[in-house]
Amino acid sequence: MRFDTKNIRGIAALSTALVLCAISGQARAQFSGNVALTSDYVWRGSSQTRADPALQGGFRYAHDSGFYASIWGSGVKFAPDNGARSEFDLAAGWSGKVSPDWALDLYLLRYQYPSANARLNWNELNASATWRDNYWLALGHSDSAMASAMRGTYVLLGARAPISAQWRLEASVARYLLDGRYADSYSHGALGLVWAFKAPFEARLTLHATDGAARRLFPGMAGSRAEFALQAAF
């Protein structure tokens, strides 16, 4: 499908419906948020800040029916410079348990860069399936991947392994299948160690690696790098 203005109106309509649900039944709604300070904003294997720190945060409204709307933001600084200084990810979708072991998350995501040319903004359909809260498969598809006007499908496998009450490991491997007219498809992986030292605060160290195709697509911004972050959820 094509992601045109109808999709944007769809996000707005769904968000409006969720707000109306909140007004009619606030006891059934849940509002949550998160904030993080990271040494490097790494997205799908590539730095979005030229390896500089970024302040990030988001808010989410969820109804007990499973429908939700969220916004998440971060500072950005791309190479080459395209004028973008901030990124806002707007999402609307549904998530919930479909069995005792399995959960699904289906949502439409809008990448918005307010200070840059509007042609940099783009949409993506996403779905993920999680098993026993510790293993997941995530898919994302866009007819204008990274605002290229070319198709791209993102596939990720992830897992987390608790070490103790305060420590856990997280790992993922992913493949970004891109239209060859735009760029070669590429792979990347990540391995992270998370320390939940005092609720709701956590510290996270993540090691990232990409293949040569990613380094060609994002010169100087992909490859091997480490990311350290302090984060909190509320």
Account of the 3D structure:
The chain has 234 residues and is mostly beta strands. The protein has one domain (5-233): Porin (Beta Barrel), CATH 2.40.160. The chain is built from two helices and 14 strands; from the N terminus they run αβββββββββββββαβ. The chain has helices at 5-24, 212-217; strands at 29-38, 42-43, 46-47, 54-63, 67-75, 86-97, 102-112, 122-131, 135-142, 152-162, 167-178, 186-198, 201-210, 225-233. The protein has a twelve-stranded antiparallel barrel with strand order 1-4-5-6-7-8-9-10-11-12-13-14. Strand 11 (167-178) and strand 12 (186-198) form a beta hairpin. The N and C termini lie far apart (36 Å).
Which tags fit this structure?
single chain; mainly beta; twelve-stranded antiparallel beta barrel; Porin; disordered N terminus; globular; 234 residues
Write down the CATH topology: Porin
Shape: globular
| Helix/strand/pairing category | mainly beta
Return the domain count.
1
Instruction: Count up the helices.
Output: 2
Specify the CATH homologous superfamily: monomeric porin ompg
Mean pLDDT, rounded to whole units?
91
Helix content: 10-25%
The whole-angstrom Rg is 18 Å
Beta strand count: 14
Please provide the ordered H/E string of secondary-structure elements.
HEEEEEEEEEEEEEHE
Sheet having the most strands? 12 strands, antiparallel, barrel
Quickly give the CATH architecture.
Beta Barrel
